[in-house]
Design goal:
Distance between the termini: 26 Å
Order of helices and strands: HHH
Structural class: mainly alpha
Number of strands: 0
Radius of gyration: 14 Å
Number of helices: 3
Number of domains: 1
Shape: flat
């Protein structure tokens, strides 16, 4: 559902994802989050997968709030 909402947001806002870097970063964070879940379920490495999932989730949230490719690392808070 989240990829569909990302594409819907880009379409409604008439944004071109390849021209707006922060829109590209959100699906990358989502992919990291999905890979972490796959690792946790299939390979049983829960600690490393949990850390990866937190990193992916924090990436998605920080990019969404700051609308900057680097998220909170850019030093720009809304």
């Amino acid at each position: 559902m989240r990829p569909a909402s990302t594409l819907g947001l880009a379409w409604i806002g008439a944004l071109r994802p390849l021209e707006v870097p922060w829109l590209e970063a959100k699906p990358a964070g989502l992919a990291l989050y999905i890979v972490a879940g796959t690792i946790a379920l299939k390979r049983g490495q829960a600690t490393a997968a949990f850390a990866m999932a937190l990193l992916g989730f924090a990436s998605i949230v920080s990019v969404a709030l700051t609308k900057h490719l680097q998220g909170w690392l850019a030093g720009e808070m809304p």
